Amino acid sequence: MKIPFLIIGGGLSGLAAAIRFARFNPEVLILEKHHRIGGLNSYFFRNNQLFETGLHAITNYAAAKDRRAPLNRLLRQLKLSRDQFQFHQQIQSEIIFKGCASLSFSNDFAMIEEEIARKFPHCQDGFHRLVAFLHSFDPFTIAPFRSARQFLNRYIPDRLLVDMLLCPLMFYGSSIEEDMDLGQFAIMFRAIFLEGLFRPGGTVKDFLDVLLTHYRALGGSLRTGAEVSTILHTGGRIDGVVLATGETILCDCLLSTIGIEETLSLLGRPPLPQNSPRLGFVETIFQLQPALCPQLPEDRTIIFFNNSATFHYKKPDTAVDFTSGVICLPQNFAGLPPSTRQEIRSTHLASYDAWKELARDRHEYLAEKGKTADHSREVLSAITGDFSRAIVYHDTFTPLTIERYTAKKEGAIYGHPQKIKDGVLGCDNLFLAGTDQGFLGIIGSMLSGVSMVNQHMLARF
Amino acid sequence: MTREDIKTLILEIIQDIDDEADFDNLDPGKPLRDQLDLDSMDFLDIVMELRKRHQLQIPEADYPHLATLNSCVDYLEPLLKDA
Ligand SMILES: Cc1cc2nc3c(=O)[nH]c(=O)nc-3n(C[C@H](O)[C@H](O)[C@H](O)COP(=O)(O)OP(=O)(O)OC[C@H]3O[C@@H](n4cnc5c(N)ncnc54)[C@H](O)[C@@H]3O)c2cc1C
User: Fold this and answer.
1) What is the spatial distance between Cα A67 and Cα B32, in angstroms, rounded to a whole number?
2) Among B17, B37, B41, beta carbon nearest to A454
3) Do B41 and A77 lie within an 8 Å CB cutoff?
4) CATH code reported for the domain at A2-84+202-274+415-460
5) Using CB atoms, which residue from B41, B51, B52 is nearest to A73?
6) N or C: which end of chain A has fewer CB within 10 A?
7) pLDDT tens digits, A24-57
8) Cβ of A24 and B17 within 8 Å?
């Protein structure tokens, strides 16, 4: 069997790449290791109920008429109509630095501008100049690493505001510690502050089903439970792949969405030098019984918080860093139908190594998971009000859980600290898309898949 | 294909990319990009549709010929004369 275009990974970047290609040529096959598509952004069932794994909010909200916005471009490129999804915008989100300040923001940029004018009047001019700069800046021109923090210091004369602006952008899209690349900062600033947050109606399964149905209707193929164990190559050209079952599949062109190091290892090549650690996270989902629920905030969708004197975005020395994190209240998107279920979710930075160590003893690992949920609940309760009595079910994913289900090395959601921005891996017919190409999040990873196909695949067939 | 057919073909492809595209005031001598708010990704779609429908391989160096409706027709007329 020889397939013109083969894709490793049925996450969002692989699905988007596959749909883009299938629009013009149905001879494309996705190989997905897991028995389900979606990758980091998927779902699982417990107690006969569906839980989403990787969706707090989708970034880059745009109105339908804004044709140039990344969201609308993406839909056009995939030939998906907005009517196939229902988009629900965030109500309002907040950045809370305990004892210092809070900033609210929504999909109307004026809100954060007013908040900054009121709470950081001495930074108002600088903030406007920063926004003006970002409007004229092209973050997609490939350039060496530039420190966003140093850049921000030139515009904003207050460390607290710099940290408060970086906090959500880092949690939703930085693979490196304590800083961001300027280009990535500009992408995330636009994605979160200038455009904003939303979610599709229904569950993430409905969202994935729309993509898969569309892909199948275009004639594309998918195999789940198909783990690639080797990439075959001779003299700088890829010949195909071998699956864990021993089956060989030949191809003309290969797109890997599984990460740079993961791909190099399938090629039998040494890993890249790495001078900063991968970042791990723990995520806890608390399912609540609405009848027992105290008054949780109804006007906050996402809360980014920091409780320590200085904000640190780095791999913790302990299993979990509870001093900062993200809280998601998934009911609080505008126009969602009333539900009998209520959830609250938390994310904190975590150490893969610490969890790996704990996992040597299954009991200790499970006990630590339980303690993590308890501790996280206490931290959240101080911000949202106590919801302990209303919890009917909870589950915690550690970096090990994420590694097990998505094969992402060290469970690092945002992948390798360094990114391969052009997607080129030194072979004429192999390219990288998704997380390690440098586009993070749901919209980012999908655009990554589309742009790699546009740049490298379409002209070949 | 006649020049008129080619014009219809191009507009049909654009309509397919953007079903709200408004051709009423389209000036065939002015850039499509500005009048219909098309970006480079949309132009790639036009090229790909021409390939899919008429097996035309348009090299990237020739993309500027697709700038206006008139220049599209001039460029495509010899290529589609037997279509
Ligand atoms: C808890 C959590 C919360 C998140 N919250 C948000 C959010 O609110 N908003 C947002 O925009 N983003 C969020 N994200 C991030 C978002 O989900 C990811 O950035 C995006 O889905 C990445 O897609 P990808 O295709 O690059 O990678 P992946 O999803 O990792 O896709 C790679 C796929 O390849 C498969 N694979 C790996 N190895 C092999 C192999 N050898 N053979 C075959 N298949 C293989 C994997 O199983 C996987 O399906 C969150 C993620 C998590 C985990």
Assistant:
1) 15
2) B41
3) yes
4) 3.50.50.60
5) B41
6) N
7) 999 999 999 999 999 999 999 988 899 999 899 9
8) no
